[in-house]
Amino acid sequence: MIPFLPADTSPAVILMTLGALMVFFGPRGRGIIGIVAVVLSFLQLLSLGVGPMGDAQIYGVSQVMGYEFAPLRLDKLSVIFATIFHFAALLNVIYGWQHATKIEASTGLIYAGSAIGGALAGDLLTLFIYWEIAALSSVFIVWAGGTHMAFKAGMRYLVIQVISGLALFAGIVLHLNAGGSSEFGAFELFTEAGTNPAAALILLAFAIKACFPLLHTWLQDSYPKASAVGAVMLSAFTTKLAIYALARGFAGTDILIPIGCVMTAFPVFFALIENDLRKVLAYSLNNQLGFMVAAIGIGTELAINGAAAHAFVHITYKALLFMGMGAVLVRVGTAKATELGGLHKSMPLTTIFTIIGALSISAFPLFSGFVAKSMITLAAAEEHMFFAYLALLFASAGVLEHSGIKIPYFAFFAHDRFAPSLRGGAPRPEEAPRPMLIAMGLAAFVCILIGIYPPILYGLLPYETDYHAYTFEHVATQMQLLMFAILAFMLLVRFKLYPAEVRSTNLDVDWFWRVPGYRAVMAAKNGVVAVWHRVWGGIKEGQSALLSGLGVAAGPGGRLSRNWTVGYTALTTAGVLAVVLIAVFAN
Fold first, then answer.
1. Do 426 and 531 lie in a common domain?
2. Where are the beta strands (DSSP E) in 395-544?
3. Using CA of residue 452, residue 371, residue 444, residue 97, what is the dihedral sign?
4. Residues 302 and 340 occupy one common structural domain
5. What is the pLDDT of residue 207?
6. 481: how many CB neighbours lie within 10 A of its CB?
7. Cα-flanking dihedrals φ and ψ of residue 223, to 5°?
8. Does 468 share its domain with 530?
9. Taking the CA atoms of the chain, what radius of gyration do you get in angstroms?
10. Rounded to the nearest 5°, which phi and psi values hold at 7?
11. Minimal CA–CA distance to 116: which of 269, 10, 268?
């Protein structure tokens, strides 16, 4: 395909430019511009071509102050992420056609463009620029939630994202000062001399945005407080850009395997007891990132293919689940399990689409999650990583419990909160708006298409593969796992052992810096204020005493205001002159 724009024009620039122009148009105009922007950007991406791993197509190379910029590097790893980012941007435009605010529509497209630009960046400084644009644009999406809680969550989100950017920039500076290449490639974390500080800082930057354990709470804090449209936008880009960066820079780094396994496991417990279903999805997102991080740590071609494939399908079905809960939020005004139920009667299409997303994330055969997630577990098995394999299997069962069953069950079935027999019951809500249904239908179609015909996905993967998901062993193992998980859920519900849906606030590790940390900061502030008041009070008292003394000496009747005799004055003058002459002579 012949480029319709100069070859060094980044698809990201197209999206970001048109996204900035959207603020001058109404809802329909913004929707049309958004569709045009995504189509033009994707056509530009296709026209540039794609090279195999290790032999990328490079465009726009330039030298500035001895630093080499390569804003466009297209190989099969970068292109698969850029492709799914375009699809996510398209879903966002359609889903938010009626309900996205001007700020959400504009910054959402800029946000998508920054993720695409980061995925295509061939040098570290270009990556940093897009990394920061993604942080700044996405915080406006959080704030667009419109509540005081959204504002406060956005401020915390911004602080965390800025810390990630500072760590990345510091790592880049150290890397370049040590004589490293400006190319964004693989980093060596551990060397014979010990830990590489530049690589450690860059890994920290990636770890924050990929939600490593203890660094993850910004996601659960911010995403559920965004609007129905904003949460869908946020679910696609920041964390997946971090996954791409890890795959590019730290593939085969062993420490990522246990980190990824922990990431897959601990969110399961939080998700099971959480009442806010959008927060359940946020924990589920964290869980799914763990599969990708573990795969990157394994580092084989099959594992990297699995990470890329899982990122691709995850963006689709996670967006579908967030869209389903967003539609519920729009129609009902809440996404809390204690206030939902029975919605399948009045929102049947939303129910069906959400169930498709739930089946996909649970990796049921014939759905997209199955053809991607099984690559990661097989990669762990082939490398004889027994404990990692078991952890991934456990996490797969946990995903079914909290996202595959809990989300659709408590939102659309369970207790009917809108039954006419309920005294004071709210009227049944309407089906989701048409643009939201179109976006959900498109995402659901892709989930099923990839599940039925996986070669569509496998042809995009970084490495050539002859992997076949639908072997008897894979299907039988996964179905056994899923059936036992369903049985466990049924028994827990039947015997009332399943965690009850209650109105509560569940504490995560951010409690340590949001409560004791806040109190420590306030105590330090109060201590500094007290010391300052004491010091300033002493200064003021000394000043008052000095002025009083001067007043006594120079005021009426004071020593300095008396009439002096000529002789005394002459003697005083001679004394002062003597002191001055002695001082001059001494120098």
1. no
2. none
3. negative
4. yes
5. 96
6. 17
7. -60, -45
8. no
9. 31
10. -60, -25
11. 10
Q: What is the DSSP letter of 67?
A: E
Contacts of 399 (CB under 8 A, 6+ apart): 268, 284, 287, 288, 361, 362, 363
Domain of residue 520, residue span: 515-549
Contacts of 86 (CB under 8 A, 6+ apart): 11, 38, 41, 42, 45, 112, 116
Verify that 260 and 219 share a domain, yes or no.
Answer: yes
The burial of 522, by beta-carbon neighbours within 10 Å (0-12 exposed, 13-18 middle, 19 or more buried), is given as exposed
Indicate whether 450 and 520 sit together in one domain: no
pLDDT in tens, 371-384: 998 899 999 999 99
| pLDDT at 421 (0 to 100) | 62
pTM: 0.87
Residue 338: φ, ψ to 5°: -70, -15
Q: Are 357 and 465 members of one domain?
A: yes
Instruction: Give pLDDT, residue 560.
Output: 61
Identify the pLDDT of residue 266.
85
Kindly state whether residue 428 falls inside one of the protein's structural domains: yes
> Which single residue is written with the structure tokens 């039988």?
476
Residue 383 falls within a domain, yes or no? yes
Same domain? For 439 and 539 the reply is: no
pLDDT tens digits, residue range 54-71? 788 888 888 877 778 889
pLDDT of 493 reads: 74
Provide the CA 443 distance to its chain's centre, in angstroms.
21
* Contacts with 467 (C-beta within 8 Å, 6 or more apart), sequence order: 302, 305, 375, 378, 458
Side chain identity, residue 15: L
Residue 111's nearest CA partner among 242, 234, 231 is 234
Cα atoms found within 13 Å of the Cα of residue 302, Cβ hemisphere only: 16
Q: What is the pLDDT of residue 192?
A: 81
Are 72 and 26 in contact by the 8 Å Cβ rule? The answer is no
Structural domain includes residue 242: yes
Which portions of the chain are predicted below pLDDT 50? Answer: none
| CB distance 499 to 273 below 8 Å | yes
Amino acid at 59: Y
Q: Provide the domain count of the chain.
A: 2
Query: Do 427 and 538 belong to one domain?
Result: no
- List the one residue out of 43, 71, 68, 40 whose CA is nearest residue 57: 71
* 66 located within any domain: no
